[in-house]
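User: structure tokens for Putative ATP-dependent helicase C29A10.10c, please.
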Amino acid sequence: HYKSIIIPLMKLEFISMLERDNTRCKAKPFTLAADQVTPYLDRYIILGRCTGVNNSDTKCELVVLEWGKFKTFAYMSSKRVGFSNVTIVYEVLAKELADLEDLRANLKNPITVRPMVDIVRVEFGAFNAVYQLEQSPLLKQILDPMELCKIKPYPKCNIQYNGCDELNNRQKHVLLRTYRHAIEPTPNITLIQGPPGTGKSCVIANLVHQLLYGNEVRILDQKVLVCAQSNAAVDVIAEKLFDMSQTKSPDKMFRLIRFGLLERISPKVRLATLPKIIERNQIRKLKATCKNLQIDHKVDIKEYLRNEILQIEADIEHMKMNNVKNTVQEEVLLEKQRQIQLMRNIVNGVLRPEDENSLYNWHLKHANVVCTTLSSCVKLSKYVNYFDVCIIDEATQCTEPWTLMPLKFGINTLVLVGDTQQLPATVLSKKASDFGLGTSLFTRIQRCIESVTLKTVANADKGNNVSSLESTDIIFSLQTQ
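Assistant: Done. Predicted tokens:
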């Protein structure tokens, strides 16, 4: 029933997005030489190559393929840029084309590729999030938020605040109650509501610290995902967490990764991105093999290594001229070749796809905290498949399907942070908006809980009355001081 309501609205929005982005697409048509066609489920996989094409023209994920008498939409599932050509894999629905034998007979004919839309991967990720919802521990609570009210109150216990920053009484109260939820095995969702200036980002950062170092949990045992709709919101939290990590001793320092496109991330937290982490590891490895390197933070590393590469290349050329094969100097030559490859990797910042995958997998598997946007969760799922807790900031500013995207990581505790007084999610389709696609999961849960008649309780901090929603241990409010 849930799918039958939300999927049609998502399709309306998807079509509106395609219409808008198609008018913005500036990529030019190009020709693709088809190498092979392979059937897979309900589609055909077309592998092809193109040469002499601008890389910006081949980046579009949604295209139209014109192949002889056939014309159909296609989705670019992968692309690899080589030295002389670009290899691209497109997927098309089988029912849109002829049978397989006719297509294979058509391989000698070039394909005209007409770019349509740059990015559709994230929208597909939102559809997948809805289809995969039934595998989530939070399924019942998402479908019927009243299930949250059935969770028995946890026994009272004295929990000591173990954050890094000094919080006011209200912030500390909200943090500790939310933390109490997160350390329980029962799947649960918590809402933190607060207008601008109430310290939501500060509470989130210190909640993460509490989850990692609280007295009630094993140190660094939890794996936490922090998300938001925008890069700016993620960077604010990531910067606070990065500063916290630098205060720890090496044996107790938590591993933080800011995941996403490097150029869209604030320079203040780029040291926590995977490219920079990998670069630092490469430099450490290089220092271990090249004892004479003079690298420190005052030196332009890439410029320094370019000069070293020129010197080592001259040494290698000299050794080859002297024919050191089967001599003691042969091992020296091989070592210099390994050094120069390491230096080139650092200077160019380019890894082979298989090396990048293995390094990303390792670092993300061992990370304690990952900060990323909701849209980047699609790519993140290639490298890691589990988090204990997910905290989503700006939760009132994104549609429900986007909020569901992190649930593919098997999240047991979801914390939604936002302000219902701010503008809701942007929805392009008026019909989808009229039927409720613009309503966030945060707002839907809040309205559902508010529909229950609850008694009024006294706010011990302020002496005024607040809604007894707080007695349900689901919704907590931050207030300006």
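User: Anything notable?

Assistant: Residues 453-471 have pLDDT under 50 and may be disordered.
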